[in-house]
Amino acid sequence: QLEKITIGKHSTCSMDLCSKHDTLYLCGVPFESGNYPIHPAIITYKYGYNKKKHTHSWIHSGTLERENMKFVSCVKAITNKSTNEKHFVTGESGKKTGVYVRYYDASSSPIESLKPL
Fold first, then answer.
1. Among 64, 66, 75, 67, which residue's Cα sits nearest to residue 13?
2. Tens of pLDDT, residues 60-80
């Protein structure tokens, strides 16, 4: 079944699916903004029952805006078959210098409060 996902003020440049946790990770590239800054972001959706649509679909579960980054270019979900941990890595470019590979543990905190390890 085809489903359109609208992510608001970002367009998507990369995504990965963690089938173990029914989670979709997206890299959000900000649209141009005239009045306020929009930062690159990591956006997550969880597949589950949508009460509004009365069906199963992708439901927005969080957004982590990366204020001090110029670009989040890629995301990769990392799963451990023997545990329930949720981890992912990103490729990020700094505003002034540097390219970074960031590692996140999303096992016990909402994505909005995550810091790279």
1. 75
2. 999 998 888 888 999 999 987
CA distances from 54 to 38, 49, 57 (A): 32, 7, 9
- Hey, how many other C-beta atoms are within 10 angstroms of the C-beta on 92? 23
Distances (CA, A) of 66 to 57, 73, 107: 27, 12, 19
Residue 111 DSSP SS3: helix
Taking the C-alpha atoms of residue 113 and residue 44, their distance in angstroms, rounded to an integer, is: 13
Please provide the distance, in angstroms rounded to a whole number, between the alpha carbons at the two ends of the chain. Answer: 36
Structure tokens at 5: 């996902």
Global pTM?
Answer: 0.85
